TrEMBL record:
Signal peptide as annotated in the record: 1-21
GO term, biological process aspect, one: amino acid transport
Organism for this UniProt entry: Bradyrhizobium stylosanthis
Boundaries of every Leucine-binding protein domain copy: 28-367
Residues spanning the membrane: none
Keywords: Amino-acid transport, Signal, Transport
Full protein name: Amino acid/amide ABC transporter substrate-binding protein (HAAT family)
Signal among keywords: yes
Family the entry assigns: Belongs to the leucine-binding protein family.
Length: 403
């Protein structure tokens, strides 16, 4: 597996003192592992690499002259490929932390590989809630989203607005199944009904038969438990079938600003979605987004929540390295878990003992074309889910780290 390397010379001096003995090879290497060529290339891809580089630049040696190197590779949405890259980074190339990793199957595989190693897993885009449940690891921090939060908070928000009957279009792998299971549990536990579900393969281009089944179900809400190109294709074809025009609500459990941009606001208008980050929320998010958009190769694109998560988690890890003088997970991860405060991109933030980063979540609706005033002005805020309600309670995850 070929991958490119890019090095930041963040300080003229070498690491000195106690840190010299603790930071392996006198450099902290962070590996961005994601989908560079497939359906997640816009929401992650090279944008995540740029976000990691921004974090390294802003870290600026941590006041201790610590040097940082960013490397990256494409896992091709294959667990065996991702695992091979991670093993090479661990055993041969001296990478200290892996960040990003969209695709739950890949993320869970790497979580197992890195458990009890010296490497930190910053699972900023891995959505499986098992990472803070039965598969929890002392080496893993999960930042942006997970299937529990996605399923429960989205279902709760839609049901509070009258959406009692549901039909699911679900991608047939860990991500989709996890989202649907969590949402169904919430829906049925709060007086709603799931009228049916259609499973589709990753990378589906034709959703006609699935959408016809959803339409004929007469469900009030059609839930898209998929991501990336699958969600874009489903939304485009739902518009052609007149799903929303016929009175059904279309909700995307895992959609990002890049996806809305790709399908166009005319097609996406009225779509409901849950996000942890929106570039136009406040002065801090706008400042970050404008810097990101000006980066090489970004061509004015605004960052997704996943790309914002790469930045935030990478910077948090580097700050923990500076605080402890060590890039070993056994030192850095416990230091990260001490954080409780305001993150510039995600708001009020706490990092729990199970590795879950807790922050608010937001239900948005995509604006009508005439409501959008400037590029990427796509969302209007419907409701805010506070941090203490947005994620599975700590005691209910079954993680041995909190027992």
């Amino acid at each position: 597996m070929k991958h490119l390397k890019w090095t930041l010379a963040l300080a003229a001096s070498l690491v000195t003192g106690a840190a010299s003995a603790e930071i392996s090879d006198n450099v902290v290497r962070v590996g961005v592992l994601n989908d560079i060529s497939g359906i997640f290339q816009d929401t992650n891809g090279m944008g995540s690499v740029e976000a990691a580089r921004m974090a390294a630049e802003d870290f600026n040696g941590g006041g201790k002259g610590i040097k940082v190197e960013i490397v990256y590779a494409d896992h091709q949405n294959k667990a065996d490929v991702g695992n091979a890259i991670a093993r090479k980074w661990l055993d041969v190339e001296g990478v200290d932390a892996i960040v990003d990793v969209p695709n739950s199957a890949v993320g869970l595989s790497i979580n197992t590989l890195l458990r009890d190693s010296r490497m930190t897993f910053l699972a900023s885009s891995t959505a499986s809630s098992d990472l803070t449940g039965k598969a929890c690891s002392p080496n893993t921090i999960q930042w942006v989203n997970d299937t529990w939060a996605t399923g429960n908070t989205t279902a709760a928000a839609m049901m509070s607005r009258g959406g009692k009957d549901w039909y699911f279009l679900t991608v047939d792998y860990a991500l989709g199944k996890g989202i649907e299971a969590e949402a169904q549990k919430y829906i049925e536990g709060h007086g709603g009904k799931v009228l049916g579900s259609s499973k589709h393969p990753l990378g589906t281009s034709d959703f006609a038969s699935f959408l016809l089944q959803a339409q004929s179900s007469k469900a009030q809400v059609v839930g898209l438990a998929n991501a990336g190109g699958d969600t874009i294709n489903a939304v485009k074809q739902a518009a052609e079938f007149g799903i929303q025009q016929s009175g059904q609500k279309l909700v995307a459990f895992l959609l990002f600003i890049n996806d809305v941009h790709g399908m166009g606001i005319k097609v996406a208008q009225g779509l409901q979605l849950m996000e942890a980050f929106y570039w136009d929320m406040n002065d801090d998010t706008r400042a970050f987004a404008k810097r990101f958009a000006a980066r090489p190769g970004m061509n004015g694109k605004m960052p997704s929540g996943n790309q914002a998560g790469v930045y935030a988690s990478t910077l948090a890890y580097l700050n923990a390295v500076a605080a402890t003088g060590s890039d070993n997970a056994k030192d850095a991860v416990p230091e990260m878990k001490k954080f409780k405060g305001k993150d510039k991109l995600f708001g009020d933030t706490t990092i729990r003992q199970d590795g879950r980063v807790v922050h608010p979540m937001y239900l948005f609706e995509v604006k009508k074309p005439e409501e959008s005033k400037y590029p990427y002005d796509y969302y209007k805020l419907v409701s805010t889910i506070p941090a203490d309600q947005a994620f599975r309670p700590l005691a209910e995850g079954g993680c041995e780290l909190v027992k």
